[in-house]
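Please go through the sequence and fold tokens given here and tell me how the chain folds. Record follows.
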Amino acid sequence: MKKAKLTKYEQSIEDAIGRGEYVPVSPERAKWIAEQIAAYRKDAVISLRINANDLKLIKEKAKKFGIPYQTYITSILHHVVH
């Protein structure tokens, strides 16, 4: 079987696994992780009109946090409704 060529990042993960830095999780923990991922899955698309200046400010703030502006908007909406 042909061995896949790994990137430096992939190789660092492979090396960490070999050193025992990653360990399997229990089935209960794996189920909890899957539930958390499913709960935050983005499955709806919306179209939204917004003031151009507000969008500019949102993009600037998202950039300061180092995240995409759409992710920042989603985060804001999530915190408002919860």
Observations:
- The chain has a mean pLDDT of 92.
- The helical segments are 8-18, 27-39, 52-65, 69-81.
- The radius of gyration is 20 Å.
- DSSP finds four helices and no strands in the chain.
